[in-house]
Amino acid sequence: MKPFRFLVLCLAFLTGVKGNDNPVTCDPNVHIVGGTLTKSNGNEVNSVLKFECPDTQYPFPVSSAKCSKSGHWFRSFHRNITPTCKAFRCPVPVLEDGMFLPVNNSYEINETITFECYDAYELHGSVSRICMKNGRWNGTTTVCNSGSQHCPHPGIPPGGRKSGTSYGIGDKVEYACNGGLVLVGSSKRECLESKEWTGSEPNCQHKSSFDSPEEVAAAFTASFTNLLGMTRTGDAKNSDTTARKIILSKDAPLHVYILLDASESVGEEYFSEAKNVAENLIDKIASFDVWPRFGVISYASDPVVIANLYDDNESSADDAIGLLRKATYEIHGDGRGTNIYAALKKVFETMVLTKVQFKDSWDKIRFVTVLFTDGKANMGGNPKAAVQDIKDFVNAQNKSEDYLDMYAFGVSDDVYMPELNDLASQKPNERHCFKIQNTSELVKSFDAILDFTTIGDLCGVADETPDAAGRNQYPWHTLVEMVGTGKCRGSIVSPSWVMTAAHCLTDGKNEVDINMISVNVGIKNKSFKVKQKHLHPLFDLGAMLSENINQFYDYDVALLELTKPINFSETNSRSICLPCTRETTRAIRRKFPGTSCKDHELEMLPTPGPVQADFVRHVGLVESMVPVTIKTSEGQRKACEANALQAPEYKNVSHVHLVVTDRFLCTGGHEPVVEKVSCKGDSGGALFIQKKRRYIQVGVLSWGVINSCDNVALKEKYARDFHINLFKVLPWLKMIIGKIITFIN
Ligand SMILES: *[C@@H]1O[C@H](CO)[C@@H](O)[C@H](O)[C@H]1NC(C)=O
Ligand SMILES: *[C@@H]1O[C@H](CO)[C@@H](O)[C@H](O)[C@H]1NC(C)=O
Ligand SMILES: *[C@@H]1O[C@H](CO)[C@@H](O)[C@H](O)[C@H]1NC(C)=O
Ligand SMILES: *[C@@H]1O[C@H](CO)[C@@H](O)[C@H](O)[C@H]1NC(C)=O
Ligand SMILES: *[C@@H]1O[C@H](CO)[C@@H](O)[C@H](O)[C@H]1NC(C)=O
Ligand SMILES: *[C@@H]1O[C@H](CO)[C@@H](O)[C@H](O)[C@H]1NC(C)=O
Ligand SMILES: *[C@@H]1O[C@H](CO)[C@@H](O)[C@H](O)[C@H]1NC(C)=O
Ligand SMILES: *[C@@H]1O[C@H](CO)[C@@H](O)[C@H](O)[C@H]1NC(C)=O
Ligand SMILES: *[C@@H]1O[C@H](CO)[C@@H](O)[C@H](O)[C@H]1NC(C)=O
């Protein structure tokens, strides 16, 4: 060893001498026409030069260069070309058995092209496409299909070519892209018996083009909701995506591995942004109707496990997020290579371990990997081999492709798409591989993904963006109108069921005829009729007449069954979550099974409070969400309840507990802050709290001490509201809607 080391030192010494004699530097005057540049280390050897161009342009002939030992920024074949920012142009489409207009050898941004198929051929994909600012056509590849072969025509991407013209079972087609374009998607596809092609649609992209945050969000959301087996409401942008064959059932286990790049080139700042993006992703996935476990790995020369998927104390969304927040860029020390292979190998090893640990649910587990990288793997072997290990392992378990989704996000211009493409899944009509310009674009992309206000039918979800207003903030809120006699409010608890106050439906002697009830939902105030009403059997307005109490509101709760279910997407409405249900257990991210109704109560109505809550108030025609606090500590609750005797109807009542039973929650007053109180007609509305971005109803507004809700009421310390506590009427709720909503014990 010694002599060898000596030799190395000698060589270093020699080159050092040579360097001092004749210092090599690169041309300091290099520039780019129409753009800007940055250099990592001035004009020294190995300094890296990066060109930047405006949004709709790319640097030509190269986007980056390194100062070579011979003192040149560019390789010989680029030396005579002045670096210039060139506008992206879209490649020429290829359409067999049809035509398109206009015809040209490339197209400018904003140019539109329209397609037509010859007689007897049917057009699939986009009829017209517009050239987007990143040099890609919007929409999907246009195909003319005759229907005469087993599989449909597989299409040819603009800027590409196809070999193979037979589309029978087992026939293959191959794709390549024209010069300067790189292929993303599957380069080979095979016609299956099911009349589908294997893999995903190929695309030919300009090597310098990026996915916009909108494209990333739309494509990732489409693929991920497909994986979750969910329907998208609102403006479903990619409604033509085919659904997966195997639908993820509610409660299905989902194992999500997130891999973060911490190599030298990403730097500390990127790493911390990537952590935020990962947290955002975990938070969103955990909001859906699945039971995910998370594994988080950061990698540089070596992988470091931040949250271990097979540890119960690390793999829940909250635990993984906690661990992720604590992880620092420093954990990788000086080993700052980009070893994607080792990171994926770690995923593979964890998967093998989980097979032992989760053998009971093994058949149902779906795997998702989300890889973030800023460039090429530069050590540790070809990551493709580790991907193959993972694929082989999942296949060997007799799991279909539907059980594994591998997403790859490349952030920066250094990302080479064909390489990244190999690390992602290829599935029909879905995208798993993305190239994003910089971290701020990555953050934007993830802010826009998996917007659960437009996905699925989760309870207790509301639009919380800053410009959300009215019913979008509380989409479960309804008007319950007793035509000709009065108005109350209610809350949607399932598509066919609305909860309200029992006193709205009776005057103590006669109950309202169901034909006279109309329930109005959503921002368009769509009206529904009622099929059945269920007042709590213990509700009896006149039960205390012998005590000279004319109105007694214990058990003031009722459920209405509608004649037809509310279409949530059509009416822009949704259900609110109810306590002690399975769905709410999931919403608050507690274990199922393993979480009791008592756990829900401790979490939602903790003592000592006060507990932050809201209800919806109506002042004239103006409807708004109003914050209040529920008094849960004994002292505050007693003070709150004592004010019940200030109500005009209760002036002669000898003891407050004659009118305020254990079933009530108390809000309002001046402690700890001055709170607004309900108005006439607010009765029946929900008192709700928020947990993990989800809303859960804990009470039904029954009555208030003061018969007004204006500023006069604000001045009165004894202005209080009383709500029926849903935790106290669970057996009845279970009896009426237990078949529709799963309650826990
Ligand atoms: C092709 O595009 C160029 C540049 O946009 C344009 O000048 C030319 O007229 C087009 N040719 C045809 C045939 O439309
Ligand atoms: C394309 O059209 C949009 C909207 O019409 C416009 O804002 C943009 O400047 C156009 N881009 C180019 C490169 O012509
Ligand atoms: C492509 O863009 C045009 C213009 O913005 C739009 O009208 C069209 O619907 C888009 N097509 C698809 C498939 O998104
Ligand atoms: C989780 O439990 C494992 C042992 O099963 C332990 O090694 C690990 O440190 C724990 N992690 C945390 C974050 O407490
Ligand atoms: C997969 O299925 C084949 C044939 O049905 C069976 O022989 C094999 O044991 C199965 N493998 C596993 C891991 O379940
Ligand atoms: C990231 O890219 C976008 C889109 O080109 C650009 O507008 C933005 O300034 C870039 N941000 C940074 C921090 O470079
Ligand atoms: C909703 O419609 C009902 C009648 O169906 C009406 O009484 C009520 O005022 C309407 N509410 C709003 C907010 O438009
Ligand atoms: C619900 O409404 C949406 C949007 O109007 C519609 O596409 C869908 O078919 C409706 N669903 C049902 C079950 O009626
Ligand atoms: C309270 O008692 C007085 C005197 O008996 C009676 O006049 C009044 O009507 C009672 N008020 C109520 C609300 O019952």
Automatic annotation (TrEMBL):
Sushi domain: residues covered: 88-146, 149-206
Record-annotated active site: H503 (charge relay system), D556 (charge relay system), S683 (charge relay system)
Organism: Triakis scyllium (Banded houndshark)
Keywords: Disulfide bond, Glycoprotein, Hydrolase, Immunity, Innate immunity, Protease, Repeat, Secreted, Serine protease, Signal, Sushi
Peptidase S1 domain span: 454-738
GO terms classed as biological process: complement activation; innate immune response; proteolysis; response to bacterium
Localization per Swiss-Prot or TrEMBL: Cell surface; Secreted
GO molecular function, one term: serine-type endopeptidase activity
UniProt xrefs under PANTHER family: COMPLEMENT C2, SUSHI DOMAIN-CONTAINING PROTEIN
Signal peptide (from-to): 1-19
Presence of keyword DNA-binding: no
Disulfide pairings: C117-C144, C177-C204
A GO CC annotation given for this chain: cell surface
Start and end residues of each VWFA domain: 255-449
A family per Pfam: Sushi
Cofactor(s) in the UniProt record: Mn(2+); Mg(2+)
Protein name: C3/C5 convertase
InterPro entries for this protein: Compl_C2_B, Peptidase_S1_PA, Peptidase_S1_PA_chymotrypsin, Peptidase_S1A, Sushi/SCR/CCP_sf, Sushi_SCR_CCP_dom, Trypsin_dom, TRYPSIN_HIS
